[in-house]
Amino acid sequence: MVNAPDLDNRRTSILGIPLWGRVIVVMLVAVALVSTWFLNAFLSESFTESTRNRAELRLVLYSGNIQSELQRNSVVPLLLARDPDLISALREGSFATTSQRLIDLQSEIGAATIELLDNAGRVVAATDRNQLGKSRNSEAAFVEARRSSDTAFLVQELDSGGFGFSFARSVRQGSEVVGVVIVGADLTKFERSWAGFADAVALMDSSGRVILATEPRWRGRSLEEALALRDAPSAIARALRVTADWAQSPPDAFVRGEAVLQSEVRVPFRGWRLVSFTRYDSVRESVNAALALLLTGFALLLALVFYIVSRRAWSQSALFQQESEELRGLNARLQREIAARVRVQKDLAVAEQTLAQSSKLASLGEMSASVSHELNQPLAAMKTYLAGARLLLKSKRSEEALASFQRIDDLIDRMGAIARTLKSFARKGGEAFAPIDLRTCLADALTMMEPMLRDSRVLVVRTVPPEPVMIRGDTVRVEQVILNLVRNAVDATCGVNSPQIDIIISQGETAKLTVRDNGEGIKNIDSLFEPFYTTKPAGKGVGLGLAISSGIVSDHGGRLTALNAPDGGAVFEVEFPREGVQLDAAE
């Protein structure tokens, strides 16, 4: 019979990849990674440079178009300032046909707007008749034109957020200024044409301010401020960006959160600059296509290596068949032993199920009584809220009625939480312990008992410190203890004139909650915390409240004590370890 170590070695040699095959696979993978890296770097640089050259050629063309448009419009004010008809109209104040003449000139020249202003700055003729009669004596175009004998060029920020470009020149008769001609140049038409060839194009003046851009938000800002105006990328977007740009050089800039290539040329006009931003999409597509072909070749080589290795495994299948027969015999013996063990385990499982069922039946009575006792308080509160909501609805106070329904919904959640947490009487808790404020637990518990306290006409006096009283525990279970203590205090004061309950929270080495009433006191204090001990009549309680509360407090590492006050009434004290301070639980 073959020994187990020898059998494992033979199976490894048959089913696994031999050493020479592993070496070839590792070498192929290494060569593929190195080749992919260098090819990606070379092609990325090459295609990036080609893309940059094309972008710069487009910018040179855009620059020529802008310069041509500006030169064509700059000549118009010079010609109109020397027109004898316009000079005569300004001298005589006769402008009946002047606007129509300017409209005819506009269609021939291609200017955006043409306006003629008199010496007072009033628009007396214009291609846009809606501008007639407006005063422009305080605008920069009128002031600059009168100040200089040359044509003035002005860039003005519009209310719409863009920029207006205009040439202005004074109309003179001899040395006397009789008016001003303002010709508007339409450069915004280039923005629409730029958007079709690049991701973003911006024209900046000599101060670096963006005056034309395919991105409207960029206008009026510096280039650095414009590039910073982008939405914060999400975590997924950042991951995709890193994955997409893993093999290329750091991008020149980011536009709308995407890496772009920046190109710039100077416009031979007043120090203007033209900048374009082009995405790497075309570069990555070309590089990825070449890399896909390279990786396909290496994948075919790997497939060939695996085929050769598999042929060797097929040649050893006969030896494997022989060893399989030996394994079948060993497997048969093991199956017989396993069958015997399974029978023993089934018998053990039947015994365990019997014990578990007995345990469940033993605790069923205790749990049903606990649930009945603890759900009695929320049910009573729900009944009170329903009665109040009915009266509010009859009084057409729907918003207050909705508040009552919300409290009922909270009580339903509370009942579900009580049903889950009442098991603490039968087992240890503490799985959901967290830092909680004892003051908040008291406030929530009194809110739940508000209807009962109001109907019983009990005066509740709370004394709590202004700072938080932090303990570690389960909020629902701590509130359950407070509910039980306050409920017992209410029942103890039902036959007393001017019933009163004092609730005090203090903190020192421990966090202490004291509940004191002015009732008749505790008659049998030794049996107070025993299950099913109660002094209430049948149907009013089952004697589990204090027993459950004592178990909850012990689970929190604290202690619950009771005593009779010297001047009458009962006093219950609950001590919890403060957050970060340990306290041995009392038995």
UniProtKB/TrEMBL annotation:
Q: Which SUPFAM superfamilies match?
A: ATPase domain of HSP90 chaperone/DNA topoisomerase II/histidine kinase, Homodimeric domain of signal transducing histidine kinase, Sensory domain-like
Coiled-coil residue windows: none
- According to the entry, every stretch annotated as the Histidine kinase domain falls at 370-580
Record protein name field? C4-dicarboxylate transport sensor protein DctB
Q: Where in the cell is it found?
A: Cell inner membrane
- Under Enzyme Commission nomenclature, its number is 2.7.13.3
Q: Which reaction does it catalyse?
A: ATP + protein L-histidine = ADP + protein N-phospho-L-histidine
Instruction: Report the transmembrane regions from the record.
Output: 20-43, 289-309
A GO molecular function held by the record: phosphorelay sensor kinase activity
Protein's membrane topology:
Multi-pass membrane protein
Sum up the protein's function in the record's words: Member of the two-component regulatory system DctB/DctD involved in the transport of C4-dicarboxylates. DctB functions as a membrane-associated protein kinase that phosphorylates DctD in response to environmental signals.
Task: Name where it mostly resides.
Answer: membrane
InterPro entries named in the record? HATPase_C_sf (IPR036890), HATPase_dom (IPR003594), His_kinase_dom (IPR005467), HisK_dim/P_dom (IPR003661), HisK_dim/P_sf (IPR036097), Sensor-like_sf (IPR029151), Sig_transdc_His_kin-like_C (IPR004358), Sig_transdc_His_kinase_DctB (IPR017055)
Identify the Pfam families for this entry: HATPase_c, HisKA
Q: Which UniProt keywords apply?
A: ATP-binding, Cell inner membrane, Cell membrane, Kinase, Membrane, Nucleotide-binding, Phosphoprotein, Transferase, Transmembrane, Transmembrane helix, Two-component regulatory system
**Per the record, GO CC terms?**
plasma membrane
Q: Which Gene3D superfamilies match?
A: 1.10.287.130, 6.10.250.3020, Histidine kinase-like ATPase, C-terminal domain, PAS domain
